[in-house]
Amino acid sequence: MKQSNILLIPLLLILSSFLSANNAIISPRIVGGHNSAEGDWPWMVSVNAGGFICGGTLIDNKTILTAAHCLFDNSIPMLSSEVTVTVGEYNKDSIPATPTSNIIKMSIHNDYQPDNYSSSNDIALLHLANPINHITPIALLDSNTTSKVVAGGYKTTTMGWGSTVGYSPTQQQVASRVTSILQDVELPLQTDEKCAKKLNAKYDKFSMVCAAPDEGGKDSCQGDSGGPLIYNHNGNWKQIGIISWGYGCASADYPGVYTRISSYTDWIIKHSKNLFIRNRLNYPYTPVHSTSTQTLLITNYTQEFAQISLTLSGSDQFLYNPATCDTIAPGSTCSLMITYAPNTTDIAQATINIDHDIEGLATLTSTFTATPVVDSSILANKVGFANSNIHWFTGGHALWNTQKNSKTLQTTQINDNQEALLMALITGKGSLNFEWAVSSEAGFDDFEFIVNGEVIDKISGKVNFKAYSYFLKQNVNEVIWRYKKDSASASGNDQAFLKKVTFGTITKPEIITKPETTIVNTSGGGGGGSLLFILLIPSLFMRKYYAQKT
Q1: Among all residues, which ones are annotated catalytic?
Q2: Residue 166 pLDDT
Q3: Is 169 part of a structural domain of the chain?
């Protein structure tokens, strides 16, 4: 439940129960809690971004409530496409795994400060691509009852999959220990006066509540961030807080801090009842004078009929019918088809604006890019690549060309954040053979080999020509050789090279061995090893685990 401002923690590698600290406080569960019973908390959510990062709760059939700090990586907000959620999670190692859900949009409070680890407004919503109708969401506790139970020091419960090891803020090193089973623990609320006294100016009674026994020993901890603090109100569990930050874990006189949900009721309503674009357009490489159509999904999550007006700016190579989505009923989704019809070799970009008549909601926008390719059969013939089963194309920010006095194709000059590609549409199953080379900034500018949308291999740095063989398994295969530059710097000739491309259809797959490729790294670098345990550096922490993104 707490996040270090020093370490990014790959949660899936945290395996050890090792502890290195003076006078360590160790507890067998959440900290001081126990395994929850399966089915007790059906609205509990695990939030993932390349691995588990935080908890959350289902507050209506299409909205997840979590902490804002969960959605930042080194103060940079994540993309909604990077995040998935598992609603109803209990055992993270269960077989079969609990199904995951995609996110179409994230709403992060505008006043949250990601560089301030005790920031107010630590609240965010994740909007589901598809509603969850088989689980009853948790209700939120109202403002009056919140004030009453805080003033009275009533009992609450919190839960998560975070560290089970407690420690004080003055300890030097403490190892995290986690469990795959959802843990819960009962905690007494502390009054605003006690919270302010123990946490000083960092505690804001408008936006926060705090909870813990005075003697310590029970608390939320690293990995529990975004999860709930709940109160049993007349026999019904309701959420009063969101796990946010704290000093140490389960340390006496240092209660955990939770976002006070009742202060954000209007914000939650405003941002959960909205219009959403549910997907991003992703056009394939498209030959000039042909077309590719993608569908933009616009969903109305308000309770009103939305009158829609569409305008498109940018490239004129995108076509659509502006009357398609003129009205969207509450709870309905409109499918807007946008066709890309390239007539030049220039990369096309456009933005569609979705205006509506729903008061208080902003105009929606979606920006998309498409890359054309042109026939390069003549080019392929010049270097001996001609094959009746292969149709050749080239495109990107610059076209491939022949190397002078050679049977080799090479990229021409491209700039930072650009790409140049050679594409082959190959009919039939069989063995594809070629030689490739690159002269680039090692580890940053890559020459990729892609088959049917999957990057099979890549080389980088100073790599002389190497033979490569690959068996194509589909009846029609899209093969791409793509040289792609990063955002800065260059090295070597800054080019990719390809020669001796052959393809032969066969009826049975041969055993084809991919040769090892030696990469000479011309840039500095470093190394590392497996993480058997992770040390938590005490001090002020948000209660989150980061997962490394790959």
Answers
A1: 69, 122, 225
A2: 86
A3: no
